[in-house]
Amino acid sequence: MPCLSIQFAEPLEAARADQWARELSALVSRWTGKPENYVMVVLRGGAAIYFSGTAGHAAWCDFSAIGLSAAVAKK
Asked: Does 69 have pLDDT greater than 80?
């Protein structure tokens, strides 16, 4: 099951998060070749993220998947 998780330092409006989650779910499905009903997308705003010793405009993205073919995993 592919999972894309993105954390934002800035707050994320619910309507924007919903729109991005739907769009990202379709993209992950297309990239991995997995049906969208097996794709998970997690968006979280307002995370405590520090970069270069300071808080501010930053994001963290993590992608994980089990069972991808070698060809897909190399992309």
From this structure: no
Which 3 state secondary structure label does DSSP give 21? helix
> Alpha helices, DSSP H only, in the chain?
14-32, 70-73
pLDDT at 75 over 90: no
Query: What residues are paired with 8 via a beta bridge?
Result: 59
For the entire predicted model, the pTM comes to 0.85
The answer as to CATH 3.40.50.150 being correct for domain 3-73 is no
Domain borders along the chain are: 3-73
Max distance between CA atoms of the chain, in angstroms, equals: 40
Q: Which two tokens stand for residue 53?
A: 């010793």
Which pLDDT belongs to residue 41? 98
The residues, any chain, with a CB within 8 Å of residue 50's CB and separated by 6 or more, are: 58
Locus of tokens 């995370």: 47
